[in-house]
Amino acid sequence: MTVNYNKKIILENGQEYYGFGFGYDEDKVCEIVFNTSMAGYQEILSDPSYTNQAVVMTYPLIGNYGMADDDYETETPTIGAMIVREYNDVPSNFRSTKTLAMVMKEFSIPGVYGVDTRKLTRAIRDFGSSKALITKASTPLDVGLEILRVSVLPTDAVEQVSCQCMWRYNVKNPKFHVVAIDCGIKMNIIRELNKFGCQVTRAPWNTSVEVIERIAPDGIFLSNGPGNPEDVQELIENIRKLLGKYPIFGICLGHQLLALAYGGQTYKLKFGHRGGNHPVRNLLNNKIEITSQNHSYAVEPESIKATPLEITHLNILDDTVEGMRCVKDKVFSVQYHPESAPGPQDGKYLFKQFVDLMEEAKEHA
């Protein structure tokens, strides 16, 4: 039986994967990656770290619980595209206000369903992340490959997703004031800081050290975000000037930026870590934490040896660096997402650790 597909995905290696379009209808070039989470597609769709990336969902059924107004991680999703095996356009969830396709159309996000996502995921694992073209099924392969050859993915992703002015997130009777450097921060991180009594000032990625010092925060938070950490040299220099002045907590991209600020190095993984069940060993207590991850880059472990940083967490699957600290400077970071959304909550203790460092800094001020 002939299937009349109307969309296809072309990889740089010439492979083609056919399916049906949903969401916004347009041709688009993105970096193609995969995510192994079984739930949380709304949080994935709205996570700024996926800017300009086409995400292949390995879990086969997507869309079945719709989209809830309170579950977005950013107001304006910037994900490149979403590729799924089976799409359900009739969600069953009393909290749902829209379908996934409605939201994707609203924010100009193309999607393809009916794709052999297992085969596509294996291809990404074998050949690594690459550029991919989402286009009409009728597009000739040689035309698609030429489009991929001449297309250049943007390098200003952090600037694209960071806030343009400062925002304040207040709590009753705040115990601490945290400046969160916004490289594409997820809203659940701010919610977690608020839960621990932190008033949060969300600041643009390129906020100067002088402005931060005038705010006089109790601590600095370095957020997650998209892209290559080496693309934001201005921020790396600012972080270097802040080291030792305030307690600092970094997550994901913030973790990588801290390594670079201390003189370490980062590198790009073959296909990244994206999913809700990555096991990590905490070297400080030898416990195993199940973590939510979403990153293309990692810290080079050998480069840390020449810095004041100490490795605190390692990925059990591939020994990549998952956490660091500098006790003297009251600085620590993790590569994974302790705030979950979606994912396990094994790392929630890190927010308490940050609060304890700020309390200690206050006592010795």
Explain this structure to me?
With 365 residues, this protein is α/β, with parallel strands linked by helices. It folds into two domains: 7-153, Carbamoyl-phosphate synthase small subunit, N-terminal domain (Glucose Oxidase, domain 1, 3-Layer(bba) Sandwich), CATH 3.50.30.20; 158-363, Class I glutamine amidotransferase (GATase) domain (Rossmann fold, 3-Layer(aba) Sandwich). 25% of the residues lie in helices and 33% in strands. The protein is built from eleven helices and 21 strands. A ten-stranded mixed beta sheet has the order 12-14-13-15-16-21-20-19-17-18, sandwiched between helices. A seven-stranded mixed beta barrel has the order 1-2-10-7-4-3-11. A two-stranded parallel sheet has the order 5-8. α8 (233-242) crosses α9. The model has no long low-confidence stretch (mean pLDDT 97).
Sum up the structure in keywords.
365 residues, 2 domains, Glucose Oxidase, domain 1, alpha/beta, single chain, globular, seven-stranded mixed beta barrel, Rossmann fold
Short description:
This protein is an alpha/beta fold and 365 residues long. It contains 11 helices and 21 strands. The chain is globular and about 75 Å long.
Largest β-sheet summary: 10 strands, mixed
CATH topology of the largest domain: Rossmann fold
What is the top-level CATH class of the largest domain? Alpha Beta
Number of helices: 11
Number of strands: 21
| CATH H-level superfamily of the largest domain | Class I glutamine amidotransferase (GATase) domain
Report the average pLDDT across residues: 97
